[in-house]
Amino acid sequence: MGGATGGQDGGSVHEAGAGGSSDGGDGGGETGSAAGAAGASTEEPCVFPTPITYPDHCFDRTVNAGESGTDCGGAECAPCSNNQACRDGSDCLSKQCSAAKTCTPLISFGYTPIDVSARTPTPKFKLTITYSDSVRMPLRDLKIRYYFNHGGVTEPIIGLDSQATIDPGNSQTDISPLLRTSVHRFPPGPVQYSLSTDSYLEIGFEDDSIWVTNGTKFVINQDFIGGSSDKLFDQGSHYSFMKSTTAIPNEAITVYRAGQRLWGVEPPLATFPSCAYAFGANMNGPALSVSGEALLAESDAHFTFNGTAAYTSSAKVLPTTDASTTSLLGTGQTMNTGDSLTWPVSNGKYWAYAWLASAVNGDTGTLKIGSSVADKFFAKTSGGARWGLIGPYAVEVLDGSLSLTVDGTVHVAGVKLYTAQADAQIR
Predict the structure, then answer these.
(1) CA–CA dist 239, 111 (Å, integer)
(2) What is the C-alpha to C-alpha distance for residues 214 and 127, in angstroms, rounded to an integer?
(3) pTM (two decimals)
(4) Of the candidates 49, 60, 244, 422, which lies 20 to 30 Å from 169 by C-alpha distance?
(5) pLDDT tens, position by position, 174-233
(6) How would you classify the pairing of strands 137-138 and 211-212?
């Protein structure tokens, strides 16, 4: 178990990260006078959510004073996901404390790590989930999050080799083609469970016709992998990793129904509120909206390029994503060592993200945004052009412009900025 984000429901706080799976739709971004300089200006102050943490006794695997169950329930710990002891509904995530004084879980959950190595290029795990609530839900509403620490692994980090079956009680059906994964990254959150978490892999499904009812069983096998194996994942730093040879009810993985948390305890991620979104731009294309955030057209962003070459790609993107992100990734600028891009941006402190694409197999390089060096990106096009929304990187603008430079070769599809808190330490 770990801590929780400010919203505690998986959907109440704005979240920015790599490969967001939400389809913001194609639409017009900001144009005209807004294009001159990036920066958010609002009359009301932008309030950043305070990540929720819990006392150490909520993680020691014993029932302490004030807890109703093991590491859960009571006034100080997270509500119990499993069928643990309760005094009343407030001790339970389901809000249901039975006559026998045990929580009524909304799902049963089993986690089995397939790769238990301390360091690995490909974390792998198996999930077994049985839905046990009387409320029917469309398959599209189901989301699962595995939390990890990026640790400097070469980008893009993507979900790979996803397999899933569903059994509503009378047959087992392969729904792997419907499975979608996305990776989301944030600034490192507060230390909880001796870890500081900055990323999660989200697993979801793209379907409007399948309904999940009481007794429906899922089996999911999931890997995720970096752009290359030169830097391995440290599973010991992963909030959701537990070493086991059998299935265990791992509450450091969370499950949601339409944003409502059904299982698990979130770590305290340092999320951005919607009001922190400052500015974004499509590097070589029209204005559009990605995950509800408007990106300027290149012509309105007033980029100044030095030595860059435009790219156009019609390759299938991997992982599969929404239409607007796919459109964004289809064009961009190829930047090589010595190339530079200058973007008019209002002075201030920001968190920066960049969409990078695999336009040419084997191209590798490191983007520098202002004075911040981004993570290395290695392009692969086998099976589909891999891509990533890398970041966030802390930048401070002092002279009215933000520069992008490169060591090697990268293909940049877009960029966006979030205003940092006034007291943020930019380094």
Answers:
(1) 14
(2) 18
(3) 0.89
(4) 244
(5) 999 999 999 999 999 999 888 999 999 999 999 889 999 999 999 999 999 999 999 999
(6) antiparallel
